[in-house]
Amino acid sequence: MQFMFTNAPKLLTANFRSNAIWAIADQISNLTFGFLLTIVMARYLGPEELGLYYFGISLIGIILIVANFGTGTVMARKIAKLPNKLSLYVGQSLLIRLTVSTPLAIGALLLYLISIDEDYQNYVPLIIIGLYSIFLSVLRLLCSALTSLHLSKIATQLNVTCKSLSLIGGLAILLNGGNLSQLTCYLTLAACITTIVALRLRELK
């Protein structure tokens, strides 16, 4: 018993250090893959489609701040306090995201596009971009749960997997003459697959 109390600070320090290192690695990988993907898209899509992509990302990002109702922050705090109720908090957060946040976000996006008389030909890629952002939002939610459990390593691995799939597959599509709609469909698929893998992790059950 005395040995456990004596070594507790060391174990906590090692755990904190490991999580901090993986959190930094996660940020670096996000910046690196994001930068590379931007270069590839700028090279092959052209200014018009690239502008439409970032317009969609920015718009849906603003909408999701409101539509997600802060579920990620609340969930992370609850899990940190009561990790034994992980499945309950994750399940409730996912239920809110899928049944409330997603319809609200897509509906708000459509209403905004209609209100500004956006070209209907842009509706499809913008809606796909919206779905892509929603899947990324869910993936970030799951990674937040893992981080709350001091499993930043797994969260980083999930993010790197998603970014790698996005970059490699996106480059292949653009090299073969793909357009913005095809690219965003693939990015959405990559985010969806990674999210499904995250949901099947035993650490989140």
Helix and strand topology:
Layout: H1 2-44, H2 47-67, H3 71-81, H4 86-115, H5 123-148, H6 152-175, H7 180-199
| Low-pLDDT residue spans | 1-8
Mean pLDDT value: 85
In total, how many beta strands?
A: 0
* Strand coverage percent: under 5%
Taken in chain order, the helices and strands follow as: HHHHHHH
Relative helix content: over 70%
Structural Rg? 19 Å
Broad shape: globular
Biggest beta-sheet profile: none
N-to-C span: 30 Å
Written description of the protein model:
The chain is an all-alpha fold and about 200 residues long. Helices cover about 85% and strands about 0% of the residues. The chain has helices at about 1-45, 45-65, 70-80, 85-115, 125-150, 150-175, 180-200. α1 (about 1-45) runs parallel beside α6, α2 packs across α5 and α4 runs antiparallel to α5. The longest helix has about 45 residues, at about 1-45. The model is unreliable at about 1-10 (pLDDT under 50).
Question: Could you write a compact summary of the structure shown?
Answer:
This protein is mostly helical and 205 residues long. Helices cover 85% and strands 0% of the residues. The radius of gyration is 19 Å and the shape is globular.
What keyword list fits this structure?
0% strand, mainly alpha, globular, 7 helices, 205 residues
